[in-house]
Structures are given as C-alpha cells and as structure tokens.
Amino acid sequence: MLGLRPTVAGPAGLEDSALTALGATRAMDTILERVLDVRLRQAREADPLFARELADRVAAFVLRGGKRLRTAFAWCGWRAAGGSGNAAALLHTGAALELLQACALMHDDVMDGSLLRRGAPAMHVEMARRHRAARMAGSAETFGTSAAVLAGDLVLAWADDLLTETALGSPQGSRLYGEWRAMRTEMVAGQYRDLHAQASGSSGVDEALTTAILKSALYTVARPMALGASLTGADEATLSALRAAGRCAGLAFQLRDDLLGAFGDPALTGKPAGDDLHSRKLTYLLAVGLRLADATGAQDAAALAPGGDTRSERTVERMRTALERTGARAEVEKKIAELVTSSLRHFEVAGAEPAVRREFAALVERAAGVAPQRAGELV
Question: Which residues of 268-307 are buried (b: 16+ CB within 10 A; e: fewer)?
C-alpha cells in the first residue's frame, strides 16, 4: 500500500467553529512549518547534500510569503458547506495547496524565464548563481533550470503526500482526492495551453480566457473551495454554486494579475514589471488590445502585433500606451468588476451564513484588486 500515515488530528485549538479565513491561514502556516520540518528531516536522512542545497531552499521558498489565497478560499468552501468543529483536515488540505502552489511557481518561472519571485531571485536564477559561485563545471543556466525543475518536482511530491495522508484520515477522503486529482490535471492543461499559445502565435480572446480559466481560475479559487466543501460531504447543488463562484473569482484574480504584469509596481508585486509584455504572452489583456487596435489606428496595431524587439523597454512602453489608448485596460477593469459581482451572487446561492459571505466578499475583492477598504480585513 502507500505506507503513509493518515492525518487525523491537528494542533490544539482547532476545535473552533468561529475560525475566520485569516485565522485559518495563520493556523495553516503553523501546520506547514511542522510538515516541512518532517520533510526536511527525511531529506537529510536520504542525502545531506540534496537536503542542504535543494530541499532546504524549497522549504525556505514555501515559507517566504505568498498570499495564502488558496487556503483562505478552501476555508470559505468548508464554512459555506457547513464546516465547523475540528478544522485539522481543512488546514492540512490548505498546507497541501500551498506546497502545490510552490511547485507551480517554480516551474512557471522556468517556462516564462522570470528572474524574480516574491521579491527574491527565482529558483532557477538562485541555483544558477550558486553554480557560478562554486565554480562548477558546465552551463550555470542549464544547471539552474534543471535544479528548479527538480525543486518543483520535490515540493509536488510533498503536496501529494500530505493531501493523500489527509484523505486517508477523512471520511470524505475519496471526494477530497477526486477534487485534487482533477485540479492537478487542469493545472497542467492550462500551462500547456499557455505554452501552445505562445508557440503558435494565438491572439484570440476566447483562447486567452480558456487558458486563464484552466491555469488559474479553477486552481486558485474554484477547486480549493470545492476541496474545502468536499470535507463536509456537501451536496452537488452546493458544490456547483461554489465552483461557479470560484470560477468567476479566480478569473477576476487572473485578469488582475494580467494588469499587474503589464502595469504593476515591482516593489509591490515582487516581480519585474512588463514580463508578460516582454514575452508577448497571450493574456486576456493583450488579446482585447489586439481586438480593439484595428479601431484605434495602425500605430496601436503595430505596437501590439507579434514581432519586434520585445527586449527593448521602449517597445514595452509603446505596448503599455497602446493598451491604454485602445481601451483594453479599461475593458479588463470592467470585466473584473462584473466577475466579482457574479462570484458573490453564486456564493450566496450556496447558502453560506452572512459572516462567511462577508469574509468571502472581502477575500474576492482583495484577490481581484477592487474595494481595498473592504479587502483590508484580510490583509
């Protein structure tokens, strides 16, 4: 069999039906630290060099920050479906989600060639620097890329182990694992659609939306909420409403991320500004800009069309100007607001208590970058 020990209990103090989304993320961080301590001990037993140079860096990356949105949304699904009492399984599921997110980020940075993540060098950049500092043989870039792929694989294994242990210890384990399995497949499908769009030169709005839904909306919000709800034995009507709410909220989150990728402040995002524009990545923002450019003139169409030296900051600045002048940025802002409204309506259908609806609204608004005065409750 799997040889894994089911997770059946958690730290004292989790028997609390009044646990908030913010409280859940804080309690999850405590669990995550304990899980990583165990995994690092196992890594050291396997091989000290591997543990010191790779596993320790992976653990440090996981603990270095992040919004912890997936845990908070899993809590929303759990509470909306009537979850109360012992939250241990929910919090262990949240920890597994955060580990999976680390895998996604490490691999995404390799595929996108991103240099920064969470305000520090991306994993492949850090490992390449280590190669140079140690004066090792061969290509530093190849070493860094290979090590980052292995780092992502390692933290994915940790995530799968933790979720499996949690499922084995839960009466709803089969449903929990079913949601997890579907989410992993959707993630990879979304990443491949992203790669395929860049390689094939796709520029359609529908293509951009499909990729955003698979790569981000389902994985960031819809599936985490369904994972939380599945632990309560929620009926299909509740799960359907939560998935719909999560799909809308997750898409709003991704569209905000697209805007930040083009116009964001690196000091706030922890990532370089304009990365998506440098790579001409097919985002909903760029697809809308290309669609609208024909109406605003040849200058905008030329700025946004494939080709040209996108390494140049001047070229990227022209793209930003075109996205403003065509109205693409404004249209994406409008779409985000519509998606937030739809998400809140779907969540209300799920039958959550008013306090949980308020927390969900604050969380969605924070993720989507709207109504910051309300979203501040969860910052």
Answer: ebebebbbbbbbbbbbbbbbbbbbbbeeeeeebbebbeee
* Cα diameter, the chain: 64
Distance CA(226)–CA(203), nearest Å, equals: 32
Pairing of strands 120-121, 116-117: antiparallel
Q: How far apart are CA 200 and CA 354, in angstroms?
A: 47
Q: Report the candidate in 338, 324, 254, 336 with the shortest Cα–Cα distance to residue 289.
A: 324
Give CA–CA dist 108/50, Å, rounded. Answer: 22
Phi, psi dihedrals of residue 47, rounded to the nearest 5°: -170, 120
pTM score? 0.88
- Report the 3 state secondary structure along 228-287: HHHCCCCCHHHHHHHHHHHHHHHHHHHHHHHHHHHHCCHHHHCCCCCHHHHCCCCCHHHH
Q: CA dist 279 to 156, 194, 198, 273, 358, Å?
A: 27, 12, 9, 12, 38
The Cα 190–Cα 142 span in angstroms is: 25
Report the pLDDT value the prediction gives residue 308, as an integer from 0 to 100.
60
3-class secondary structure, 15: strand
Query: All domains of the chain, ordered by start, with CATH?
Result: 21-378 (1.10.600.10)
pLDDT digits (tens, 9 = 90+) for 7-27: 544 443 444 456 899 999 999
Tell me the C-alpha distance between 118 and 44, whole Å: 26
**Dihedral, CA atoms, 112, 208, 371, 237, nearest 10 degrees?**
-120
Sole residue written with tokens 């994915």 = 156
φ, ψ for residue 116, nearest 5 deg: -120, 150
Q: What share of the chain is helix, strand, coil (3-state, %, to 5)?
A: 75, 0, 25
157 vs 107: CA distance, rounded Å: 14
In tens, the pLDDT along 198-216 reads 888 888 999 999 999 998 8
